Amino acid sequence: MRLFKRDPGLDAPLAAGARAPRSPRRGHGRGSNERFGRWTESIARGMGTPWFLLILTLICVAWLAWNTWGPESWRFDSAALGFTALTLILSLQASYAAPMILLAQNRQDDRDRVQIEQDRQRAERNLADTEFLAREVVALRLAMKDLPDREFVRAELRALLAELETEQPREGESSASDSGDGSSPGIAESGGEEPKR
Predict the structure, then answer these.
(1) How confident is the model at residue 4, as a pLDDT?
(2) Helix axis angle, 84-146 relative to 30-47, nearest 10°?
(3) What angle do CA 107, 110, 112 make, to 5 degrees?
(4) How far apart, in whole angstroms, are the C-alpha atoms of residue 44 and residue 46?
(5) What is the pLDDT of residue 174?
(6) Gap between the Cα atoms of 111 and 131, Å rounded
(7) CB under 8 Å to 66, separation ≥6 — which residues?
(8) Which of the residues in the chain have pLDDT under 70?
């Protein structure tokens, strides 16, 4: 029985469409950290877009224009004090943005490390497969060198045909010389009697 359940974390990538395992206690453990990490990554991604910079610029311009040229009673940030509220809001936004961006970068580094390890293992497998296939190709080439090629077979067939052509006239000459004396070897040995069938 295992007392502690091993959590794969970022070292074991999830399958496509799978979600991180949830912790049994809500708000504690790996599930809440994963949820918080995804939330901070989405905010960091949003801050890294041109739309965020455009909207932040428009808000700052509207803030400055309202507190400079707006009705005196409706102004909420004094230009004489250097727009203190706007400065504090921007400082607060920057103080939260930096750690969120760093957290997103750390999580991306962890994912990249896992991906690099998987790529390295895949490259090792591909290299082993390539070496195996190269050895097989060399073995096939060596086996093909031992097999006769087309020219070799043609030369052998020509030699056999020439040998057959030279043997046929010799057989014709020997059969003509044997039939010239009028006796067959079988009849001579049996004393002129034909063998019984």
Answers:
(1) 47
(2) 100
(3) 110
(4) 5
(5) 62
(6) 30
(7) 74, 75
(8) 1-30, 170-197
For residue 11, what pLDDT is reported?
52
pLDDT of amino acid 168: 81
- The residue assigned the tokens 């009028």 is 182
Q: Which residues of 113-148 are buried (b: 16+ CB within 10 A; e: fewer)?
A: eeeeeeeeeeeeeeeeeeeeeeeeeeeeeeeeeeee
Distances, alpha carbon 64 to alpha carbons 44, 47, 55, 73, 78, in Å: 26, 22, 14, 15, 10
What is the distance between the terminal CA atoms of the chain, rounded to a whole angstrom?
A: 95
Q: CA-CA distances (angstroms) from residue 173 to 94, 125, 146, 166, 188?
A: 115, 72, 41, 12, 21
Amino acid at 37: G
Domain range summary for the chain, segments of one domain joined by +: 31-119
In angstroms, how far is CA 169 from the centroid of its own chain? 70
pLDDT of residue 27: 47
pTM metric for this prediction: 0.45
Q: Are 10 and 111 in contact (CB under 8 A)?
A: yes
